[in-house]
Amino acid sequence: MSNDLVPAGDGPFGETSLQPWQEPRGVGPALGKSPLERPVAALKRYKWLMLAVIALTTAAGVAATKFVSPEYEVRASIMLTSEGSDRTGPIRSPGLVSPDDWSQLLRSFTISDAVVRKLALFLHPDRPEDQELFKGFALGEGGKAGKYELLIHKTQRRWTLTNALTGIAVDSGTVADSVGRRVGFLWQLPTWAYIGAGERRAKFTVATPRETAVQMLNRLTTSRARESNFIQLTLQDPDRNLAANILNTWLREFVSVAAVLKRRKLVDFAQTLQGQLQTAKASLDSAEVNLANFRVTTITQPSEGVAIAAGIQETRDPVMADFFARKIQYEDVKHDVKLLQALLSSVQHDSVPSDALLDIRSVSTQASSTALRAAIADLRSTQTKLDADRQVLQDEHPAVKALVAQLNTLKQVTIPQYANDLLNTLRLKQVDDSTRIAAQEVNLQKIPERTIEEERLRGIRDAAAALYTSLQNRSAEAQLAEASASPDVNVLDTAIAPLAPTKNTAPRLLLAALGGGIGLALALAIGLDRLDSRLRYPEQATDELGLPIAGAIPRFPKDGLNTNSPEQMFQLVESFRSLRLNVVQAAANGRVSVAISSPAPAEGKSLIAANLAMSFADSGMRTVLVDGDTRRGALHEMFGLTGAPGLTDYLAGSVELAEVARQTSQPSLTLIPCGLRRRRSPELLTSPRLIQLIAELRATYDVLIIDTPPLAAGIDGYSIASATGNLLVVLRVGETARRMAAEKLRMFERLPVNIVGAVLNGIQASDGYGYYGYVSGYEPSDESESTEMVQSS
Fold first, then answer.
1. Are 353 and 343 in contact (CB under 8 A)?
2. Which domain range does residue 49 map to?
3. What local confidence, expressed as pLDDT, does residue 205 receive?
4. What letter does residue 587 receive in the DSSP assignment?
5. Strand 669-672 relative to strand 72-80: parallel, antiparallel, unpaired?
6. Is residue 715 domain-shared with residue 678, that is, in the same domain?
7. Is the dihedral of CA 301, 302, 304, 305 positive or negative?
8. Once rounded to an integer, what is the mean pLDDT over residues 333-348?
9. 208: which of 68, 273, 736, 761 is 20 to 30 A away, CA to CA?
10. How many domains are contained in the chain?
11. pLDDT per residue as tens digits for the range 98-136
12. Percent residues over pLDDT 90 in the chain
């Protein structure tokens, strides 16, 4: 390692202990971590497990594709020709059902059951090569569903039918016999089935036609756009030829059923109309007879004092019209009389308003009011002339006074006199009209009741005639429709077997298996990472354990360091240099005195302590490394030295310091091994002699590093850390249990120990620690001095 690193401070280190580590001044807050950093690290860590899961799910998908078959989809279309009930134009047969109900008829069991029976879709041979044996197979009324086995004795030219589930023979026979007649089968084997010698077995399954029809309906799709006369049908099946055959048979059966239902409906409709027509004819004949009898008996009876020939129909309208006209005229006169009386009463106050008089109907229309209208016109002209003279003359002028006198005479004398004359005339007319109306009312009330009876009989006769005519027309329409009945549907496009499958689930199943495997692998990796109780990421040390990161050491290769690899040596050396710098900066103006421990064994604390001491020694500092792990210490083996006498021997008082301090191959590094393993080692580490040793070593050396037992081993690590006052905690990435580390570190809350920070041991750049590494290309190409690293033995 380079010895160019000079400790901060003035000359030699003083006696001050380490200070808590602080961030360098002038450095802003750290940038936030990417949210994908931890998931990516987890995926890299569990990559082999993920690959295994993906491989297993993909293999399962490949195996599943063996059990699926490609689906072929056939299409057909139907055109509806039925009309609604409000049709106009030439006579046509009524529609069978509304357009919205055709799809229901298409999916009815009447059609689906017939298709299943015609094509024997309820029959399923176990082997496709046996399909030819079952040509002509049909079910009778008592057909029993189940699984059967047919045994053909070719030599004996006999057959035996057995229930495949129970093994009991249900029927047997010869060549000429119908197979399975006892279980309701209608089927005879072809003669070629008996050619040859030996036996032939054929297993098959017979389902119920209704069950098969339900399955077919689930695969049949019908669609019809709103207000459209076209229905689209699609059917899916693994056998493309069978799918086309099924759909075409379905269409033929549908058209046939529609024709039968249409003809049946027309026959029923015609019969119903014929019965209604006979009833209407009888009612019409009865109504005509009743009307004729009434007219014969009342033809000579007088009406209103005048003989009326052939009924009273011709004289009713003039009488009624004259009565209501006179009644309206009477009401108008009565209304005008009231208005005139009200206007004439205003003469006492001023004068009769001329405009209001003209609004009265009798004043504006009656010939007797001509003088009144002339007076009103004279009043308006006089008023106009007066207004014109007043524009140029004074009111005292004789001409103006004359016009005023004339105007007052018209208002107060002339017009009221004419209005009174008109009022008297209207009163006389009102009395006369009242008398006439009363007389006409008496005459109308005396109209014979035969008039009403005649009208009633005429209404009955007319209604019966209209009903009979309507039924007669509809009966004729029904007979014509029955003779030219059509099913109201036409097959527009028949089904054709497609060449390529429209639904091949094998690729989709493979993709689903692959996608599911990837999703499961991702979820498993993320889940395992979340459930992992071991230390994996730097933020777990800083956030959960509350430790600043003092350094990060790359993982030592399992097969040892390759001194011929500059990149490998560069990363390791620089990591310890960085750790050394943090420790030195924490010991501002003071000598370095620090204990190194870990929560549990096998976390690399001894290796970190040895190489950190080597780093300090390479920088030119006088460094002493003490193996405080008196139970399992092995630092002496790393440096090729003996373990005794050592620390325990010195603390026991059996040797002096000069006897336990051993020089290593590094001139600036001294090692004090652990010494003989004693049962009283924990008590020795808590003795005052340890405090004296640390004080003496601080006075002699620039750097004091003590390797302690793991914190989980007992109080040894706590005692040494309290004696030094400072502690570096080594955490092995992927090994340290976070919960146990937190519990062990909690004890330092009550001890006078400054925790400098955590050393993350065994990091890998691929696990999210890339920012703890160093840029390659800056390692020395030719270094005259050798660089030494201590490896665990």
1. yes
2. 41-68+505-530
3. 93
4. T
5. unpaired
6. yes
7. negative
8. 72
9. 68
10. 4
11. 666 777 888 888 888 999 988 888 899 998 888 888 888
12. 5
